[in-house]
């Protein structure tokens, strides 16, 4: 309790010091007016800037100062009316007004008044802050004057006699000069808006940051309510400032459209995820339908496309109280073979609007009518900005709506096609697998059924939990059980969890894998996974690729668990044969070589498909082991080139983690002869090799592969067996009891990850780099028996397409760190590499500091103090001082950029 008390005191002290500093040094006029019993208002206190503008000496005691002594009654009564307006509104009030500086020197001010009440809801103070915006008003007036002048000359030009050529030229010159002045004025206005937007955002971020800090202190319910309202209002204000800045850029034609290659699915998911929280609070479901005609990769501006989607989905959620919001993506061919027309429909079941109201939708600072602005808020710029972006990309944005039924916004965008792209990652074949979809929302059921059908699965649908249990029961009765059950969580009558419990209680270990689909509470879903109630989960909205990956991952795990293999495998002398191993992962290379060592077969290694083709064009081998997923050239492409271009006719064996019928069929279709799953199983590997390299007459020469050698490193073995995250017995069994090979694999794994370099690297990794990292980690962890880590990898692989995954927040990296911490004391003396040095720790602190500055997390002060213990060089001291100076000026964005530059210099 003492510790918490100290923390509260520290927070209060920090807040008090911050507000005292702002009060003393702010250029804005801050004041507190006391509400007197007689209805009058007296000046309770004001900051130096306010005293200066009022003409009061700095040492004046203003406690309950009567402002009637300073200004005449007309001015005072006007001020009293504004104070009373804030009190009557029971909320902060903002307005613009003329004010008096000193002796009758008028200025224009933007004022915010906040009423304060006692516990009996009686007003006691009115707090205010005013900002001098006279220069901005003068600039606006200058623009108006320029417009008036332009209109005058335009009218004059129309009245000039056509025969008076000299007069026309004279007036034309004047008009051109005026136009230039107007253009300069507009440019000045745009520059001013951009600068002011930045100036406004900085104090807003500070206000929101301090409110969040204040929210962590001891507050009563009313104070927490006020803080929540301030935070909500601040977020709304920040969004409106951003809209105004975007509109200003568009108005000034300073927006450029990019044309770069990008993946569409992550862009869509990022836009939807930003609005998912608002949808969750209203119990709305966002349904994504991505047509199979849509290419995986396109050429265009992903940032602007995402912004259009964010605005449209945000509008749909805002104006829908019940039902759903659907996002439908499709593509149509154009006359140009290098282009495709991307079509986006965002449909809702909201309030809808009339035809007359639709005519005003795309006008600046306009909504359907004033009542909508009052009820839902907003600046009316979102649709205007979205339409202008669509038009800049050569497309269009339109609307269809019916009052009381909902609206549909349609976007069409011509985008470039990426040539020779493969759709294998999105489209698969689930032939032979039966899937049951359980969802109470008809449109969600239909979308899932269509997706799975296009992926090749046999699909049945159930409308609720009771119907699902009945369908599963019938499937067992006719001996055609479902291979996977897709189960929605939030359903009426019987929800997904209750349905899963019913199925488990009836069918016990025969229960098919259950994939829970939900837009809610990821942590609860993970807990149900850990309890075995569900096999895995996937978050809504679901895309075809994420759905296919999740289902395939479940089927792959289920097949591995139920696979029945002979624990004994015979092995013969294969020294007369030569094998080419095509594999980019060093640990997979090490495992395969370890398995093949006792066979004495000659092994050559190629790191990718290109190297394999080059090697085989000059050398003869008897058999090829070919990985599928490799850089530069994958295994499927390499096999096709070997068969078609080189005429290679020796056996090619696929090695891949995908063990579904569709994956195996794809391998065979490319020209491969057989398939070995990953992680590599010695039983399966030797069986396939013997099928193609040995005759039946050779079987008598085999020896027992499962003979276990003497245990090496007995103390280490005992310690490793106590690590909960490692299944040592299972891992040893998978590699045929080869102790030395296991320790070699373990040391290689530890050497690769012990320094935690991946933590920093993955913070800036592209989605493709992150996928490659997880793919490699999955295989590596399987070889050492870290099966919990393997499961985390499988889950993350199915989630990566959402586009919002941050490596430092994932349970995968927590699991990896948990394992490494337990391996550190055991394996440190077996390795010659140095332990994590101060440079790596320094980099981590820099990375942490940059993130804190960009999110206005005031814990950056502690991180800055930690960095001082690392810095000794003059250049580094100068960099640190620049960062501290920026922080003191509350220029957090500038400070973050300085940290990023420092990190780049170290790398």
UniProtKB/TrEMBL annotation:
Enzyme class, first EC level, given as a word: transferase
Topology versus the membrane: Multi-pass membrane protein
Domain Response regulatory: 434-555, 578-693
CDD domains registered for this protein in UniProt: HATPase_EvgS-ArcB-TorS-like, HisKA, REC_hyHK_CKI1_RcsC-like
GO annotation, cellular component aspect: plasma membrane
A Pfam family recorded for this sequence: Hpt
Keywords: ATP-binding, Cell membrane, Coiled coil, Membrane, Nucleotide-binding, Phosphoprotein, Transmembrane, Transmembrane helix, Two-component regulatory system
One example of a Gene Ontology biological process annotation: cellular hyperosmotic response
Residues bearing PTM 4-aspartylphosphate: 488, 627
SUPFAM superfamilies named among the record's database cross-references: ATPase domain of HSP90 chaperone/DNA topoisomerase II/histidine kinase, CheY-like, Histidine-containing phosphotransfer domain, HPT domain, Homodimeric domain of signal transducing histidine kinase, PYP-like sensor domain (PAS domain)
PAC domain mapped to chain residues: 93-145
Reaction it catalyzes: ATP + protein L-histidine = ADP + protein N-phospho-L-histidine
Segments forming a coiled coil: 139-181
InterPro entries: CheY-like_superfamily, HATPase_C_sf, HATPase_dom, His_kinase_dom, HisK_dim/P_dom, HisK_dim/P_sf, HPT_dom_sf, PAS
Keyword hit for Signal: no
Gene3D superfamilies on file: 1.10.287.130, 3.40.50.2300, Histidine kinase-like ATPase, C-terminal domain (3.30.565.10), HPT domain (1.20.120.160), PAS domain (3.30.450.20)
UniProt GO MF annotations: ATP binding; phosphorelay sensor kinase activity
Major localization listed first in the record, in broad terms: membrane
Domain Histidine kinase: from-to ranges: 195-417
Name recorded for this polypeptide: histidine kinase
């Amino acid at each position: 309790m003492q510790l918490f008390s100290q923390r509260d005191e520290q927070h209060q002290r920090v807040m008090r010091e911050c507000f005292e500093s702002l009060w003393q040094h702010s250029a804005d006029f801050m004041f507190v007016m006391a509400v007197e019993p007689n209805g009058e208002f007296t000046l309770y206190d004001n900051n130096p800037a306010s005293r200066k503008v009022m003409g009061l000496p700095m040492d004046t005691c203003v406690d309950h100062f009567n402002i009637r002594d300073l200004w005449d009654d007309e001015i005072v009564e006007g001020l009293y009316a504004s104070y009373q307006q804030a009190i009557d509104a029971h909320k902060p009030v903002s307005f613009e007004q003329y004010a008096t500086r000193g002796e009758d020197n008028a200025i224009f001010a933007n004022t915010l008044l906040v009423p304060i009440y006692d516990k009996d809801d009686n007003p006691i103070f009115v707090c205010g802050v005013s900002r001098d915006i006279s220069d901005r008003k003068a600039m606006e007036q200058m623009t108006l004057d320029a417009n008036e002048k332009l209109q005058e000359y335009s009218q004059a030009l129309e009245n000039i006699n056509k025969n008076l050529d000299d007069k026309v030229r004279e007036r034309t010159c004047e008009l051109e000069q005026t136009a230039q002045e107007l253009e300069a004025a507009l440019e000045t206005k745009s520059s001013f808006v951009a600068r002011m937007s930045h100036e406004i955002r900085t104090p807003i971020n500070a206000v929101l940051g301090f409110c969040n800090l204040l929210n962590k202190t001891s507050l009563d319910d009313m104070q927490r309510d006020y803080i929540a309202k301030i935070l909500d209002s601040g977020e709304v204000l920040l969004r409106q400032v951003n809209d105004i800045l975007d509109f200003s850029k568009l108005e000034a034609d300073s927006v450029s459209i990019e044309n770069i290659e990008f993946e569409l699915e992550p862009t869509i998911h990022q836009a939807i995820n930003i609005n998912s929280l608002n949808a969750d609070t209203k119990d709305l479901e966002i349904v994504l339908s991505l047509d199979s005609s849509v290419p995986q990769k396109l050429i265009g501006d992903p940032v602007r496309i995402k912004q259009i989607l964010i605005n449209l989905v945000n509008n749909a959620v805002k104006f829908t109280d019940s039902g759903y919001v659907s996002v439908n993506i499709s593509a149509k061919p154009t006359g140009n073979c290098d282009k495709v027309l991307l079509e986006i429909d965002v449909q809702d079941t909201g309030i809808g609007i009339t035809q007359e109201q639709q005519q005003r939708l795309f006008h600046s600072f306009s909504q359907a009518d004033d009542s909508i602005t009052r009820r839902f808020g907003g600046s009316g710029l979102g649709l205007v900005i979205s339409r202008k972006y669509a038009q800049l990309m050569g497309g269009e944005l339109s609307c269809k709506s019916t009052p009381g039924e909902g609206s549909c916004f349609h976007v069409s965008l011509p985008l470039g096609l990426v040539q020779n792209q493969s759709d294998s990652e999105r489209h698969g074949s689930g032939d032979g697998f039966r899937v049951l979809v359980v969802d109470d929302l008809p449109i969600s059921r239909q979308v899932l059924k269509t997706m799975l059908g296009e992926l090749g699965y046999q699909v049945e649908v159930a409308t609720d939990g009771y119907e699902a249990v009945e369908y599963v029961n019938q499937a067992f009765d006719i001996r055609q059980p479902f291979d996977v059950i897709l189960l929605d969580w939030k359903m009426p009558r019987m929800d997904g969890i209750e349905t899963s419990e019913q199925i488990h209680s009836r069918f016990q270990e025969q229960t098919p894998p259950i994939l829970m689909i939900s837009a809610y509470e990821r942590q609860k879903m993970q807990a149900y996974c850990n309890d075995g109630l569900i096999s895995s989960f996937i978050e809504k909205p679901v895309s075809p690729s994420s759905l296919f990956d999740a289902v395939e991952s479940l089927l792959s795990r289920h097949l591995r668990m139920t696979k029945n293999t002979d624990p004994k495998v015979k092995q013969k002398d294969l020294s007369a044969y030569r094998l080419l191993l095509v594999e980019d992962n060093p640990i997979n290379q090490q495992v395969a070589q370890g398995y093949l060592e006792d066979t004495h077969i000659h092994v050559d290694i190629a790191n990718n498909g290109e190297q394999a083709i080059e090697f085989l064009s000059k050398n003869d081998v008897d058999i090829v082991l070919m990985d599928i997923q490799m850089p530069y050239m994958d295994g499927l492409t390499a096999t096709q080139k070997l068969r078609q271009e080189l005429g290679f006719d020796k056996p090619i064996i696929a090695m891949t983690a995908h063990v579904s019928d569709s994956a195996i069929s794809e391998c065979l279709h490319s020209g491969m002869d057989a398939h070995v799953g990953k992680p590599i199983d010695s039983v399966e590997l030797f069986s396939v090799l013997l099928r193609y390299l040995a005759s039946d007459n050779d079987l008598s020469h085999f020896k027992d592969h499962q003979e276990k050698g003497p245990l090496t490193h007995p103390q280490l073995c005992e310690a490793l067996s106590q690590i909960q995250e490692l299944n040592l017995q299972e891992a040893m069994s998978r590699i045929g009891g080869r102790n030395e090979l296991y320790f070699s694999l373990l040391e290689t794994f530890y050497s690769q990850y012990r320094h935690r370099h991946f933590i920093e690297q993955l913070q800036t990794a592209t989605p493709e780099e992150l996928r490659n990292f997880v793919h490699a980690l999955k295989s590596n962890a399987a070889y050492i028996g870290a099966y919990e880590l393997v499961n985390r990898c499988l889950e993350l692989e199915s989630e990566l397409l959402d586009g919002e995954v941050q490596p430092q927040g994932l349970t995968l990296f927590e699991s990896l760190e948990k394992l490494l911490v337990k391996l550190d004391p055991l394996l440190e003396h077996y390795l010659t590499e140095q332990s994590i040095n101060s440079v790596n720790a320094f980099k981590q602190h820099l990375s942490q500091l940059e993130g804190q500055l960009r999110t206005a997390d005031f814990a950056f002060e502690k991180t800055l103090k930690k960095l001082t213990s690392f810095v000794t060089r003059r250049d580094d001291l100068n960099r640190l001082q620049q960062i501290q100076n920026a922080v003191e000026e509350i220029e957090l964005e500038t400070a973050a950029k300085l940290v990023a530059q420092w990190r780049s210099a170290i790398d």
